[in-house]
Write a structure and sequence with these properties.
By secondary structure, this protein is mainly α. The protein contains five helices and two strands. Helix content is 56%, strand content 9%.
Length: 94
């Protein structure tokens, strides 16, 4: 999917909407969230949440659970996500 690590990072962090979603998911690593919950917590429009979750799940930064409704959780097994969480903590983003 990506040409290199730089491409992955640029895609994953490519906008404020993704950062808001990632902030909620990384602050609450053990919880799962519906799209609706993420909309309310981030203040983003439904289409923004839907599109960004699609990208983040394809990247395997976020896990999608097939509940009704679907739920989402940060993927702690992804090495990039582990570094991202460390970075967020270091800069006091989470």
């Amino acid at each position: 999917m990506f040409n290199d690590e730089e491409d992955e990072i640029e895609t994953g962090l490519g906008g404020i909407s993704k950062l808001k979603i990632l902030r909620i998911l990384t602050r609450n690593k053990e919880e799962t969230f519906t799209k609706y919950a993420l909309e309310k917590m981030t203040g983003l429009k439904p289409i923004a949440v839907r599109n960004n979750l699609k990208t983040l799940t394809q990247m395997q930064w976020v896990k999608e659970y097939p509940y009704k409704p679907k739920k989402y959780k940060i993927n702690l097994k992804n090495p990039v996500v582990k570094h991202l969480i460390d970075f967020f903590r270091e800069v006091k983003y989470i």
